[in-house]
Amino acid sequence: MTDIFSTEKRSDIMSKIRSKNTKPEVKLRKALFARGFRYRTNDKRLPGTPDIVLRKYGTVIFVNGCFWHHHPDCKIATMPKTNTEFWQSKIKRNRQRDLENYWKLGELGWEVIVVWECELNHAHVEESVADKIAERLHRKLSPTPITYDIPQESEIRIAAEENVEYGK
Ligand SMILES: [Zn+2]
Description:
The protein is α+β, with helices and mostly antiparallel strands. It contains four helices and four strands, in the order ααβββαβα.
């Protein structure tokens, strides 16, 4: 069997599937909203443009498509039978980029929660996922609130140290 589309065309189709296939994320967002959480969505100012940003809780949530983000050992993350090498390297790059973004967010003081699309596949399962997240968020709130600044894109973050003369 050969793919009826060229690689470029397939890539285009796959990316459209990705951008339209936001249902699991919306379900989770609604469930969190119903629990009183307020958030920003798709904040481009943060590494990886997290799907849900809960600033008050210093937490970001990614709702990851299992195929695009390479959910290990996941049934729905199967490789296309054609152009397999192309897809494998593409998905590998996605995965590396994800890990870099999680690391950068951690450096900025954000906690990262990753929810896989397949975890939201069944009806109403988002309610229990939202409960779990809510529990984690409530635990995070300490008596002395910590504020997290969302960095501007152009801002260069440097360690704020006075000019100290060492060895004196
Ligand atoms: Zn999965």
